[in-house]
Amino acid sequence: MDFDIEYDFDEAEADDEREPEDDTELSADERRARSFPRLAPGRRVGRKFADTWWGNAWIESMERTALDPEQLRKGRRYAFAGQVGPITVSPGRISAGVHDGDQYTPHDTVVRVGTLAAAEWDRLLDRVAAKAGHIAALLDRDMPHDLVQTADDAGVRLLPGYGDLDPECDCPSWDHPCRHAAALAYQAAWLLDRDPFVLLLMRGRGEAELMADLRRRNARRSVATDAADEAAGTPAEQAYAAPPAALPAPPGPVTGEPLALAPLLAGHEAAGLDAEALGTLAADAAHRARDLLAVTGSGPASSPPGATQAGPLAPEPDAWCDAVRLAARMPRSASAGRLGEASGRAADLPRAVKAWDYAGAAGVDVVDAVFSPPRELVARSTEALREAGGVDGAAPEVKNWRNRWTVGRDAQVRYGRDGRWYPFRRRAGQWWPAGPPGPDPADALLDLPKD
User: Is the pTM of this model over 0.70?
Assistant: First the structure.
């Protein structure tokens, strides 16, 4: 964690009924609010403010609309100093009293958030109910990226975007946000870190209501499935009574030894036959088959150590990425050199293999990708890299070109299409991948290993 903070309360005691200020804005079933005790002063340890990606997405939405960076810096100090009182979260708003260090009476501060319409909730919950993994993730207080993608596919923006947060405060400042509203928004990110249902409540639905709605949708789905089975002419009892089809036993774990076929081919001379390459292709086919079994649920119930974990199946790679993937399995083989020659990019293959080792296909893409990120991201990232102070403690010049930031002479950070930051080092006049990607440009720079 990036900060130490006291956060200990009974969740059942934290909920209370609060009437909204404007009954015309919220329906009767959206009037349940949650109150959280004041967060004691904390101490920042790392560079990141929030722990989770969705907590940082909340902060980014607020910071992108800020007119004065100084108010943000003061807001961060207020948040860490515990100058925000108990926070109340309700549909469409979060509120708290925020006081200055030399002032006893707090300022009434509110950050308003747009709620989802009933039709948007219907589309979102239909998609969530169809995937048990989404429900399990939420109950584990996690918000996976594919849940947000599911919302996007349903035409629903779950995380607040540019301009979605509207701060209000009774202080005399005209800043947007003022330091008090910024402090409230920063502490709200900590609440989101620990419970994504806080975000869903801001968007208009509480946890109990959401789970009840999802259970109703699952029940309707089960009834519809049974009706479809019956209409097809096969009663469920008969289908379950039928003996299961015989399936082959799932394969064991792939050990990654590409030359398993070589001893079997010894002594069998065949023109053009490369035992090493054939063994590599066989091992690669076994890896991909096991990945497919894990994704479709046909594999073993518990994967052995080293086996591929279940998850979405990666899309088919293009010819270059496929050549890099195969070359990474046999880096010291003559076949790897032939792969480079066949791809027409033999000189680029060693760097691409290095990128694959760090981040797979996304890492290979960053080696060549050149595109223009949003201007707001460019400005924030350039400032963050300057504040990082350089790799060796100095303060070198930071130059930006498209999605690449060069720091000093020999360090570079690149922004990938996947939203992650990739460190590079200059070696013999070329930029080489130098480490795994990270969620923050300054972290990627600071984690860059020294030569």
Answer: no
